[in-house]
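FIELD: query
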Amino acid sequence: MRIRTLPTALAGAALLLSGGAVLAQIEGGSRGAAPVDSGSAYEVSGVTVDVAGKTADAARYSGWRLAQRKAWVQLSNRLGGGGGLVSDGTLDSLVSGIVVENEQIGPQRYIAKLGVLFDRTRAGSILGISTYADRSQPMLVIPIQYSGGVGQAFEQSTQWQQAWARYRTGNSSIDYVRPSGSGPDALLLNAGQTQRPGRGWWRTILDQYGASDVLSPVVKLYRQWPGGPVIGVFEARHGPDNDLIGRFTLRVGTSDGLPQLLDTGVKRIDDLYQQARRNGSLRVDYSLSPPPEPEAPVIDDLPTDETADANTAVLTGGAGSSITVQFDTPAANAVSSTEAALRAIPGVRSAATTSLALGGVSLMRVAYDGDPAALKTALEARGYQVFGSGQTIRIRRVSQLLPPDLPADNVTTG
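FIELD: result
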């Protein structure tokens, strides 16, 4: 689906009429934001500081120092480390980043709400805990935003996708796979794809992004008037069938607070996904896994019948042969009678006419367990003349001969 505003469509038509190059739909423009990498860090958010200093920079530096100490105590208590403090030098080696959520800087005062990121491996070694995190299988995230009745994912850059890109997932038990919106994301991951339950195409998409399942967080934005309150209806959905995990509503007083509204919505949806994973309602849809390869057929060995006829035992001792038999077919009944005669020979597994020529010579394919010479001997014993040898033979019924001791002049004709 191609969505254009009127000026863009007119500009494209002007380029086409003037012989200029027209860019493809997936080229150019900004369709998303690269997600922050927070999988290797512990995060402590919402740390408030209010400090004074000789200068604004000194106050800010003191505030960050204080935030590190407060955040370490919270992290230590959360992970069972007892809440003990460490030196500022050690904290400097543990902290991998400071997230400014809100700050007010004065000439000699610094008031802020900060987030602190700690290196997972180093913090775990000091606290004496394992850094292993029990996380879900990789889940592909397709954030859908409805605004003005239009649903968008990566077709155009949306504030909902940006909120998911800046969300730090280090403390979440869900292993999110967050596309950046570049390349083929706009074509593969769109609002229409979340409504298609076909597993075959979903398998192709998930393999492309290295995921096992799909999550579709949805927000529907309702603006009361331009610049006024904004209501967001959030839905946590899962799987190719777009199953609903949970729903909630948030409201902000002005349009300027929309980023904060969406950030809060991302955190609440992440909590819903984690809760669903704990109670077992969020499970990987195994119909998205590749179908198993067919098992090899099992061939049972047949027991040997030791009481079988000696002649049959000799015939079945060798490998099976496929023999082409040429025979006369003056009428249709000659086909069935010849096939029946050959099937009656011990060792013949099948006899079927492959080429029929009424009034001429037809061809029959015979599957025989034994040497072709043995089949030739068996046919001669049943009154056939056999010409040729090997895999192709010619048979013909022997005419009824007179007894050798009966003179021809003693024969009377009726």
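FIELD: remark
The first strand starts at residue 41 and ends at 52.
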